[in-house]
Design a protein that fits this description.
436 residues, TIM Barrel, five-stranded parallel β-sheet, four-stranded mixed β-sheet, 28% helix, globular, binds zinc ion, Polysacch_Deacetylase, Glyco_hydro/deAcase_b/a-brl, signal, hydrolase, hydrolase activity
């Protein structure tokens, strides 16, 4: 068993949550929501590379650099069996602070700075963490490959931990990224604003330099693009092209696009047509981003639509959860596709927690009935427990951020990944001390 830091769980940025079904969507290679530009062209000119055609003798002029990542390890190199009894480590991050000199300046209120200090890492810290976990032999795996559902001898659906086949000497690592929504508050606190598809077909981050006011398109200031780039430069860091799993809310849209509905605007309101048109433009704009992220090893889970606390009890809370879940499905699941992963906001877990065996409440059962199978919280180890009386697995993730980088007590749990002393940027962070 394990202890967990309840206080740490009280976190996750702002508010809410929800969700869909089916597996992690790894079979959906064809984009379920193709953007117009991705639509197959009929009667292609003969000089246009056709991805479905037989290999041609001529080199394709713009080979996808991600191909080298996906195919880096060949099957005969995957000789190390990582069995169900072996831990698959799991680290999670929030969006990284692109401009820490701005975020930790008087331009941002003190209490906000402390919030950012608690729950975020800076770009430089994130770079150092990636380098360290890579050097320590970790390899990114797809969270959707770690557990799967099967039918037991009684005909019941249950979850099981899969055996992963890895290269010799490597240790599996899941990375997840919470609240990759680019909330309004982040846009004024030194973060990037959205993910976009660049002219080269890759994912880039768009933002505004808070010091100069100039628009910035970069791959060096955002966790997603930094990880993409790191894996392109170190393809042995990824198993079959795996990257991370996004944990998305919906109340301010997703990935920097304001795709959310405003249910306060009535269907017959004069404001409706303009709102709908604007929203549709955001939806159209985010679709190619989602498609490219999926193509390049990223997966999606729910963080609830409204970042809601799930441990609350009572009919009111149950009703709220149902509304929230459906809204996530309508507004986020409809764009990113089905998922069976739920990342608890605020760490509030209605699943009976670790020490209560098979005890769990009606909210957990309802979420499971909606298709969720993997329920992720936050803790001091990559704990996981497969439920025996319902098809579900609960798991914890470690959280590199200011709270753990500063803590001597937490340090021992993170040394297998990195030494916080080598990572934390005390020159730029507020003067809040360390206990190591
Ligand atoms: Zn959160």
């Amino acid at each position: 068993m394990r202890k967990h830091l309840t206080k740490l769980l009280a976190f996750c940025l702002v508010l809410a949550m929800a969700l869909p079904l089916a597996a992690c969507g790894k079979k959906d290679t064809p984009n379920p929501n193709p953007a117009p530009t991705n639509s197959p062209t009929v009667d292609q000119p003969s000089d246009t590379p056709d991805p479905t055609a037989e290999p041609s003798q001529e080199p394709v002029p713009t080979a996808d650099p991600e191909d080298a990542v996906r195919s880096y390890w060949s099957e005969d190199q995957l000789t190390q069996a990582w069995g169900p009894g072996q831990v698959v480590e799991h680290l999670f991050f929030h969006p990284v602070i692109a401009y820490p000199e701005f975020a930790f300046s008087s331009a941002v209120p003190q209490d906000r700075q402390e919030g950012l200090d608690d729950w975020m890492v800076t770009v430089d810290e994130f770079n150092k963490i990636l380098q360290s976990v890579y050097e320590k032999g970790y390899i990114l795996v797809n969270m959707c490959d770690v557990w799967s559902e099967y039918t037991n001898e009684n005909g019941e659906q249950r979850m099981q931990r899969n055996t992963l086949m890895l290269p010799e000497g490597k240790k599996p690592l899941i990375m997840s990224f919470d609240d990759v929504n680019y909330y309004d508050y982040m846009l004024s606190e030194g973060f990037m604003s959205k993910l976009i598809v660049g002219e080269d077909g890759d994912i880039w981050a768009y933002g505004v330099d808070p010091f100069t006011g100039e628009e910035v398109v970069t791959q060096d200031l955002d966790a997603t693009t930094i990880l993409d780039k790191f894996v392109r430069e170190h393809p042995d860091f990824s198993l079959n092209g795996a990257k991370g799993c996004f944990s998305l809310t919906g109340y301010q849209g997703i990935l920097g696009y304001r795709t959310q509905n405003d249910i306060d605007i009535a269907a017959d309101s004069p404001e409706r047509p303009a709102f709908d048109a604007k929203r549709q433009a955001e939806i159209d704009a985010v679709k190619p981003v989602i498609a490219r992220l999926k193509e390049t090893g990223w997966t999606f889970g729910s963080h609830t639509w409204g970042h809601i606390r799930l441990a609350a009890e009572g009919e009111k809370a149950d009703a709220r959860l149902k509304r929230d879940t459906l809204r996530w499905q309508e507004e986020v699941g409809s764009l990113v596709g089905p998922t069976n992963i739920l990342f608890y906001p605020h760490g509030g877990r209605p699943d009976g927690d670790h020490d209560q065996g098979e005890t769990y409440g009606p909210q957990f059962v309802w979420l499971q009935e909606q298709g969720f199978r993997i329920f992720a919280s936050v803790g001091i180890s990559s704990y996981s427990q497969i439920k025996t009386t319902i098809s579900a697995v609960i798991c914890d993730r470690l959280h590199p951020d200011g709270t753990t980088l500063r803590s001597g007590k937490a340090r021992e749990h993170y040394l297998q990944f990195y030494d916080p002393k080598d990572i934390i940027d005390l020159d730029v962070r507020p003067d809040l001390g360390v206990t190591w």
